[in-house]
Amino acid sequence: MNLKPLSDHIILEPIKEEMVTEAGIILPETAEREKPQKGKVIAVGPGRMKDDGIRIPVEVKIDDVVLFHQYGPSEIKIDKKEYLVAKEDDIIAIIE
Q1: What is the rounded distance in angstroms from the CA atom of residue 49 to the CA atom of residue 9?
Q2: What is the average per-residue pLDDT within 7-34?
Q3: Which range of residues forms the domain containing residue 40?
Q4: pTM for this structure?
């Protein structure tokens, strides 16, 4: 299935990092933990439209790894795979 976001929406694939305690114990995915705040951009909308009809392009591009607000993006499931849908304002930074 192809996802084509509209406006300034961005589709992200969450990057789940292993949680390791100070003692070196790796916590499994089933352990309660915070939502991921890092993701890989897999689709980008064309940008937000201003009132005068001029489109403002989105600053991120496909394959960028980004940091985002923890509770900003919406979670969706497509073909048993989890994705996040964020607006450009939810993106904090691009990791280079």
Answers
A1: 12
A2: 72
A3: 9-95
A4: 0.78
